């Protein structure tokens, strides 16, 4: 049986790398993004559209929630509510929307693999990226909670927390912030999207069987806990 995967935020960066790697593993991958190139052209913040599109395209055995934005690049006191709301809607509510739409079918069939994309910022907090850091911390906590809720269902839910990865998302990160967080990496380089995709591949497979509600760092040594 060919496993079917859904990848959100699938047309660039980590999402695109995940699509390529999962297809190389033999999965049938459906892409979801706002751009024309996606199989499902949906804004992850539109919960109704997400549910309808996923129901029509499903069922899915694997879900990778890669849609995300950086949000305000500024000290917290210089940010506003609108900036916080937008990054929260995409990074957190967009993730939750995908989970709610896909997980019930996995539970019913007794097998599934869910991989959420968090960030080292969600563990350490990156100065100048307070909203982004907060949303990625929320993704981590959501993953931990959901993994425990589904622990006996056959559906495993794990998160990945990358450090700085060479993706288009960083084009919207200020050079000063980018330099600061890159210098925190002991390997003295940024990661590659294909390196993260290898970890996604494992977490999306039958090779992982006794891990759920966990956070996997891929940080070039930056992670401290």
UniProtKB/TrEMBL annotation:
GO terms for molecular function: oxidoreductase activity, acting on the CH-OH group of donors, NAD or NADP as acceptor. InterPro entries: NAD(P)-bd_dom_sf, SDR_fam. Pfam families: adh_short_C2. GO terms for biological process: fatty acid elongation. The keyword Manganese does not apply. Keywords: Oxidoreductase. Gene3D superfamilies: NAD(P)-binding Rossmann-like Domain (3.40.50.720). Belongs to the short-chain dehydrogenases/reductases (SDR) family. This is Short-chain dehydrogenase/reductase SDR.
């Amino acid at each position: 049986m060919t496993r079917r995967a859904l990848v959100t935020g699938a047309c660039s960066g980590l999402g695109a790398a995940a699509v390529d790697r999962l297809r190389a593993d033999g999965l049938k991958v459906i892409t979801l993004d706002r751009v024309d190139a996606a199989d499902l052209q949906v804004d992850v913040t539109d919960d109704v559209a997400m549910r309808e599109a996923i129901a029509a395209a499903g069922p899915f055995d694997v879900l990778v929630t890669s849609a995300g934005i950086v949000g305000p690049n500024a000290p917290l006191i210089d940010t506003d509510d609108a900036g916080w709301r937008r990054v929260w809607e995409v990074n957190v509510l967009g993730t939750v929307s995908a989970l709610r739409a896909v997980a019930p079918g996995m539970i019913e069939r007794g097998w599934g693999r869910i991989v959420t994309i968090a960030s080292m910022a969600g563990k350490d907090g990156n100065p100048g990226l307070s909203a982004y850091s907060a949303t990625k911390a929320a993704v981590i906590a959501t993953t931990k909670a959901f993994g425990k809720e589904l622990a006996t269902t056959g559906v495993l839910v794990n998160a990945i927390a990358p450090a700085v990865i060479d993706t288009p998302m960083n084009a919207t990160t200020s050079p000063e912030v980018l330099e600061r967080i890159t210098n925190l990496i002991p390997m003295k380089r940024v990661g590659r999207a294909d390196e993260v995709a290898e970890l996604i591949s494992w977490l999306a497979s039958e090779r992982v069987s006794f891990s759920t509600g966990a956070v996997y760092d891929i940080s070039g040594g930056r992670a401290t806990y």
